[in-house]
Amino acid sequence: MFNFWRRALLYPFVLLLISWLLWETVGSLFASLFLSALLLVYAALHLRQLAALDYWLDDLNEHIAPDGAGLWGEIFARLNKMIRRHRKERAQRIAALQHMEQAISALPEGVTILDEAYRIEWCNLLAEQHFGLDCSRDIGQQITYLARQPELIQYIALREFAEPLILRGASQAGLILSIKLIVYGGNKLLLISRDVTQLERIEVMRRDFVANVSHELRTPLTVVGGFIETLGDMPNLENDMARKAIQLMGEQTQRMGRLVADLLTLSKLEDTLNALQEDVVDVPALLRMLCQEGESLSAKRHVLRLEMMSEHALLGSAEELRSAFSNLISNAICYTPQGGTIVVGWHEHGDQFVFSVQDSGIGIAPQHIPRLTERFYRVDHSRSRKTGGTGLGLAIVKHIAGRHHARLEIVSEEGAGSTFKMVFSADRRLPLATSE
After folding, report:
1. Which of 41, 182, 210, 329 is the 20 to 30 Å CA partner of 432?
2. pLDDT reported for residue 10
């Protein structure tokens, strides 16, 4: 800094010194004229350098850096070096951005970057195809203005992004997308879209196959079951082994019948064309009836208690809710040892409604709980066979919960019992008086 001021003030100091000497030798008038002339030349040189700087800065890409003497030369050199470094860094950032865009464009998913108001900031080619966008034209537009599917608008409005959204017919007929929103960077959102049309078709084929096979099995199972029942009633059947064999065949035929019925129920629940038939469900009355049935199933081997903490009804399918509630109650009875206690509850938790079944049964180890709702998953295969379970009950309950915008919660400890809950949102709440 000192060196700068020393060099900057050297020329004016020399002028003043020369002017003072002239003042002493030839007089004040000549000294003043001499000093004024040299100061004008000095100012003109500075203005010339400023004009050159302005001309250069007007278009850095077209104009070359000006030459200058003294301090101006050093300033021009430092500015030129800084601009070159800035250009190099800018080129590196542009190259990195282009590389990132190429990488994102190569992904098998559509990627759309949204701001906090869901306005489009950038999207790749697949996202354009999925939503019918034009990235060069639609930047700054809200995604809900361009993709007007009610399901997508509701998904964004609810801001419940834990589960993906299946969107049908987003930009063209027959197209099925899996939509996922990811919040990042504080207020930015990443909209990931994947074409699952082929996967959905395979899933539909699988469901149709299971439904068709299950339907075709019903008739031969009914016939076989009828003949086994007839054989068992024959009075001249004296062989104990034959009677035991016929009894076992009858039990297994009934079990296969239950399995076929559950497969058909599950296929029906999974069918996207099978819309939920909503009605007012008198939950308190339904639970009282199911508890009476549970007491018959238990045959006084358990203590079955109903805790009714709410008298509100629900909006939903009475048939499906009966199936789900009954399934959880019968599971508790089957997996609770004799003398155990089973508590069936219906209560409010904040603005939500909770159906619960708590038992003092054998409990479930933690590693099994996440997989309980999988089809045919069994914690104890031998015990499941003894209870006559099909391995599809909790899968059916989970699907029914999902169709009613509810969630299934499972809390259990091995050897200390289990609690199964179906938690319903407030939009399903109805006062009981509406059903009268």
Report:
1. 329
2. 62
Indicate the pTM of the whole model.
0.57
Greatest alpha-carbon pair distance for the chain in Å reads 157
* CATH number, domain 107-195: 3.30.450.20
By DSSP bridging, strand 418-424 and strand 352-359 are: antiparallel
Q: What is the pLDDT of residue 179?
A: 87
User: Which residues are 303's β-sheet partners?
Assistant: 341
Is it true that domain 279-435 has CATH number 3.30.565.10? Answer: yes
Q: Check residue 21 and give its pLDDT.
A: 73
* CA pair distance 175, 233, nearest whole angstrom: 57
Confidence (pLDDT) at 433: 44
- Domain map (residue ranges) of the chain: 2-101, 107-195, 205-270, 279-435
Strand pairing class (429-430; 110-114): unpaired
Residues of the chain with pLDDT under 50: 433-436
Query: From CA 61, how far away is CA 98, in angstroms rounded?
Result: 22
**Per-residue pLDDT, 436:** 40
CA distances from 94 to 52, 136, 139, 185, 330 (A): 30, 18, 19, 21, 64
CA distance 158 to 112: 19
What pLDDT score was predicted for residue 172? 67
